[in-house]
Amino acid sequence: MALTIQGIYPTSYVMYHGDEPSVVDKAVIEEGQVCISVNGQELVTLMCTPFNLEELALGFLCAEGVISGPDDIHILTVSRHERCVDVWLRDAAYTPPTRRIITSGCGGGVAFEEISRLHEPLSSTTTITPAQIRTLMQSLHESAVLYNEVRGVHTSALADDQRLLLVAQDIGRHNTIDRLWGQALQQGLSTRDKVILASGRISSEMLNKAAKMHVPVVISRTSPTSLSVELGQAWGVTVIGYARGRNFRVYATPGRIRASATMS
Fold first, then answer.
1. Which residues of 125-137 are buried (b: 16+ CB within 10 A; e: fewer)?
2. What is the rounded distance in angstroms from the CA atom of residue 119 to the CA atom of residue 211?
3. In what order do the strands lie in the sheet with 84-89?
4. Which is catalytic among the residues 48, 62, 84, 106?
5. Beta strands 20-29 and 32-38: pairing type?
6. Side-by-side strand order, sheet with 217-220
7. Which residue in 24, 45, 58, 156 has a CA-CA distance of 20 to 30 Å to 185?
8. How far apart are CA 30 and CA 91, in angstroms?
9. How far apart are CA 248 and CA 220, in angstroms?
10. What is residue 38's three-state secondary structure?
11. Mind listing the pLDDT tens digit for each residue in 175-208?
């Protein structure tokens, strides 16, 4: 096994086949705390897979409204041990809010009435066919390098209606969306009118990030939550779940699905 892959932690375990044990040298996905400080003050500690932290920090800061793009950053440095990202803004007077910790799971609950007012319904001409959904989800599965190596990790991708443009992997579902946004910022790639594909559950926080990115279609191999379905309806985001093989379920804004026969 290629233990040089970033994001995995070499280990061994005892494997039982019935009553017979054997020692296996393998690996697990790496998890760690990573702090992001802004203008010398710690903003947040993320539980994440500690690698490629520039993209994670960029996407997170953009999602939180701290920056609108890379041009707002004067200096960004990552500590030698990949445990802290130090960001200095061109706006030297900016003071971050109180430090908080975000886990690799779901955030706290929030009322629909409160969060639904964050965005106007998306205006987008983006459409997608069942055949394109199947092709993109297969590409997502094939791109999941860390998952195929050690399991226990989420994979997300940014795509147009033909191919994957960016891929991100992390122990946190939400972190993968921040990583996609960070990569897009690094490469000068617009996220508007694109498609997000995810291996894990679609939460309200993930849908909120997608709406901020002006992404009108979110597709997952598994389920959306009730709040993400409601927000998809309120914000005009097409929410697709259980996209496996030839089947998928459209939970919100189904008008962007067009018949495969209309493909040009």
1. ebebbeebbbbbb
2. 7
3. 73-78, 84-89, 32-38, 41-48, 100-102
4. 106
5. unpaired
6. 164-170, 154-159, 195-198, 217-220, 238-244, 247-252
7. 45
8. 34
9. 9
10. strand
11. 999 999 999 999 999 999 999 999 999 999 999 9
**Which pLDDT tens digit goes with each residue over 73-109?**
999 999 878 899 999 999 999 888 776 656 555 444 4
Q: Distance from first CA to last CA of the chain, Å, rounded?
A: 43
The structure tokens listed for 188 are 């000068």
In this prediction the pTM is 0.90
Annotated active-site residue 106? The verdict is yes
Q: Count the helices and strands in the chain (H runs, E runs).
A: 7, 13
Distance in angstroms (rounded) separating the CA atoms of residues 227 and 99: 26
Strand partners, 44: 36, 100
Check if the beta carbon of residue 203 is closer than 8 Å to that of residue 172: no
C-alpha 89/C-alpha 75 separation (Å) is 7
Name the one residue in this structure whose structure tokens are 């987008």: 124
SS3 168: strand
Please count the residues of the chain. 264
What pLDDT band is residue 263 in, cutting at 50, 70 and 90? very low
**In this structure, are residues 127 and 258 in contact, taking their beta carbons and an 8 Å threshold?**
yes
Q: Taking the mean position of all CA atoms in its chain, how far away is CA 165?
A: 14
